[in-house]
Amino acid sequence: MDMLMIQLEKDSITPLYEQLYEEIKKGIIEGTIVVNSKLPSKRKLAEFLSISQTTIELAYSQLIAEGYIASKSRVGFFVEAIEELAYVEKTLPHSELEIPSERQILIDFNPGKIDTASFPFSTWRKYAKDAIDYHEKDLLLIGSAQGELELREQIASYLYQSRGVLCSPEQIVLGSGTEQLLPMIMKLLGEANQYAIENPGYTLTHHIFNQYNQKVIPIEVDEDGIQIQQLEGSSANIAYVTPSHQFPTGAVLSASRRSQLLNWAAHDEERFIIEDDYDSEFRYIGKPIASLQGMDHRDTVIYISTFSKSLMPSLRIAYFVLPKKLLSQYHNMFTYYTSTVPRFEQHILAQFMRDGHFSKHLNRMRKIYRKKLEKVTLALTPYAPMVTISGEQAGMHVILTVKHELNATTLSNIALQRGIRITPIKEYMLAPTIQKREDQFLLGFGGLEEEEIPKAIQQLMSCWGIKQA
Q: Which of 50, 119, 172, 185 is the most buried (most CB within 10 A)?
């Protein structure tokens, strides 16, 4: 080869040797510089391109290192057969990926939303600033697999005072969410289990059970919670329940059914109850409902909860409380684990709870969500009897029942066309139930501004053509 016709941009921020390397590599890949051809010497190419021999040497060295050319002593540089390379970058024609644009949501009745504006930012910032300090340098190291002891102590104290949960810090295991902790519980309980789960129920747990190939048995829910008679008639040996505020119906497991459920679990050593207490902090009618775990005298209840609703979903701190009889098995199986929650976040939360700010925050948020619930109730009242609500004793959502010629799925799609998101209860069901729910929705209000609620309800009713009575 006499010479390489290459244009170099001397004013470019890309170094000259890199430009030269890229051009020669491109020519070899595309075939314009043929295999076995001899490249110009460093001196001749430097003179031709008016650049230094050092620049040529750097470019050639890189091409040699990557196998595009080979150097033969006292002979020169020759192009290698690129088919012999493990991988060659070739520019292939490709079509642009069509990414569907998400519909803009103007009003979101998502039950997972919280009131972000009311978060105690200044207080949390203070504890975060204190944590990022030389005196807390030990937080840079890996901590306990179960989570920070100081946080587990605070959680144990809080659970006893607020939920009647009887436990020691040694029974608590922290993790980065239900989706991380529930598989740990499954592994702890063994492979050959059959899980009774509420129908309708929490879709995340449906996905987790399915992903881990667990046998699930849907058990229907009525106004008193999970139907124990149906559970007793099933082959399930583990029951996953939300007794204090059933998701999504809002039903509270009655006192008699609580006793029946505990008796069911006590009947066999292989039976356990997983009590998911996801939002028990926010109860607006009557006294707080005591936990099943606090009523359990036979070590059959595994209590699980999270800070997603009480503080923020992005904190990613959840926990479970193990029965004492499962502790040794837990330590045998999970001693090699490390906590999935960063130690700094655990430390911040522990100090936040220790100094009473968590309780203050809950009291404040309980009042805020109660006012929002009142706004929802007041805004929907004029649309009765076409529209009714239930499950309003606790939490940040209610069940909306709509008498309409169209079913809930169709109405949900109509609302979405108007930028309003509201989910039919049917989407939380694993199987059809005796109680028909084709006309029911889950209406979350936690993420709505209080003053926006009346207008949001009015727009929802308007898109469905429902007028005030």
A: 172
